Amino acid sequence: MNIGFANLVTLSRLVIIPFLIYSILKDNYFLSGLLVIVAILTDYLDGIIARASNDVTKHGELLDPAVDKIFTVSVLVALVEKHIVNSFEVFLIIAREMLVTWVRSVLVNKGIVVPAYFLGKLKTSIQLLAIFLLSINFVELGKITLWISIFLAYVSGFEYFMIFYKEKAWK
């Protein structure tokens, strides 16, 4: 099986995660910030590489959001351990992601492909900014940014549920 360079770039985020968690737990803010930036860049680059090399695959389309979620949850759990964010905030983020993933899966099984909307992309960008700020110990600004991302997450999630309702996807 040819995994493709773009998918290797995506998988490199998984390799970064343990080092990022360690740097957060050891208060190495410079390394934490650097690793978050590298992870964000790989997230940006994997799609560009896949499209430029005409190597967009179903595996990559599924792998990228899965790795994104693993990255986000792993970093947030490390931040919970450091008492920088609380478990309720992480619960809100995980619950939304799981519900939207479920809705999108049900819709895909009904032949309805729902692309990522602007608000969802904005939510992701602001969430990554929050993770960066929190990882470099800009706690107050990071927490405000995280709550903005949570608000946007639920607003954008509502868009998916409206399609789910409109399409009567539960039938």
Structure description:
- Its main location: membrane.
- One of its GO terms (molecular function) is CDP-diacylglycerol-glycerol-3-phosphate 3-phosphatidyltransferase activity.
- It is built from six helices and no strands.
- It is mainly α and 171 residues long.
- The chain has one domain (5-166): Up-down Bundle (Four Helix Bundle (Hemerythrin (Met), subunit A)), CATH 1.20.120.1760.
- Helix 1 (5-25) packs parallel to helix 3 (58-81).
- The model has no long low-confidence stretch (mean pLDDT 92).
Can you summarize this structure?
The chain is mainly alpha-helical. It has helices at residues 5-25, 29-52, 58-81, 87-109, 118-135, 139-166. Helix 1 (5-25) runs antiparallel to helix 2 (29-52), helix 2 (29-52) runs antiparallel to helix 5 (118-135) and helix 4 (87-109) packs parallel to helix 6.
The ordered H/E elements are HHHHHH
Radius of gyration: 17 Å
Strand content: under 5%
Spatial shape: globular
CATH architecture: Up-down Bundle
Q: Provide the structure class.
A: mainly alpha
SS summary, helix count: 6
Largest sheet, described in full?
none
Poorly predicted segments: none
GO molecular function: CDP-diacylglycerol-glycerol-3-phosphate 3-phosphatidyltransferase activity
Catalytic activity: a CDP-1,2-diacyl-sn-glycerol + sn-glycerol 3-phosphate = a 1,2-diacyl-sn-glycero-3-phospho-(1'-sn-glycero-3'-phosphate) + CMP + H(+)
Protein name: CDP-diacylglycerol--glycerol-3-phosphate 3-phosphatidyltransferase
InterPro entries: CDP-alcohol_PTase-I, CDP-OH_P_trans, CDP-OH_PTrfase_TM_dom, CDP_ALCOHOL_P_TRANSF_CS, Phosphatidylglycerol_P_synth
